[in-house]
Amino acid sequence: MTRYQVTHRTRFRYAAPVRFARCNTRLRPLDRWGQTVEAHALDVHPAATLSSPRDAGYLARATRILVDRSARELVVEARSRVAVARPTPMAHPGDLSVAEAAAAARAESGFAADAPTNYLYPSPLIGAFPEIAAWCAAELRPERGVVEAGLALARAIQAAFRYDGSATTLDTSPAAAFAARAGVCQDFAQVMVSGARSAGLAAAYVSGYLRTVPPPGRPRLVGVDASHAWAALWCGPARGWIGFDPTNGVAVGEDHVVAGVGRDYADVAPIDGIFLGQDGGEVEVAVDVEPLA
User: Fold this and answer.
1) Same domain, 49 and 168
2) Are 10 and 227 in contact (CB under 8 A)?
3) What is the tens place of the pLDDT at every residue in 88-124?
4) Which candidate in 24, 84, 97, 139 could, as Cys together with 35 as Cys, close a disulfide (CB 3.0–4.6 Å)?
5) Mean pLDDT across the stretch 149-154?
6) Same domain, yes or no, for 140 and 52?
7) Contact (CB, 8 A) for 97 and 145
8) 193-222 in b/e burial notation, b at 16+ Cβ within 10 A?
9) pTM for the structure as a whole
């Protein structure tokens, strides 16, 4: 088990005072999927009205922030202490094949937030694209073990795509990122989810955090981590949901902290909302994922 102190600080600076702002935050890590939240606090400046945390439709806990006073700046800071006990998954000889896992997902009849039936089909931000389906099919062969295939696809994306923060934006479609063979973790996760769904698998988009390890002999820097995204595949009733990180080409173990699971980014965005005022401003995000002794 690994315990973390996760701090996620977002600062909105507006070009002119805003009269009203309403945001939804999904910054509280999940109390499932191999982890336990030991403590969580959400601070907002200027003082705001906060709703009680509520289920946000899929696997996320949302808190609504209401600011009804004039402000040039809004700061939202979430602090969470999380214990993660999630062994790195390995492929087993008895795993279902890709075809068997796809058939098992279609046979499921539940509609709970983590039911595979919710994640079989294209969603608003992750469509089905023939070029992605064909490329991913090389790793997602029907007869291949589903866990082995998921890890192979994550590694293939890591090898074929260039990490480039300037290549895409928040609104870039999976097809555009695939054509460029470049992007960030969100893009790589969306490509993997799109390809897996095209192969018939239940695939979810996961938002969270990743522990970063400094180079040997270098201190761990504070505040330079970032929120992260990866994919999860439903690997049958026995294995359940298993995470695969195509940015790093690994199966998801104790280095990852899950904040939300949904069909795509829109279901689990860390913060979204509206404000009334003149257009313009900037956003600064600082994340720190500190392992605790």
Assistant:
1) no
2) no
3) 999 999 999 999 999 999 999 888 999 999 999 999 9
4) 84
5) 98
6) no
7) yes
8) bbbbbbbbbbbbbbbbbbbeeeeeeeeeee
9) 0.93
- What does the pLDDT look like over 191-234, one tens digit per residue? 999 999 999 999 999 999 998 876 677 765 554 577 899 999 99
Cβ–Cβ contacts within 10 Å for residue 69, how many? 12
Closest among 7, 27, 12, 6 to 75, alpha carbons compared: 12
Q: Are residues 260 and 275 in the same domain?
A: no
Q: Could you tell me the residue range of the domain that residue 69 belongs to?
A: 2-84+269-292
Place of tokens 């298993």: 242
33 and 123 fall within a common domain: no
Shared-domain flag, residues 286 and 232: no
Alpha carbons 32 and 54: distance in angstroms, whole number = 15
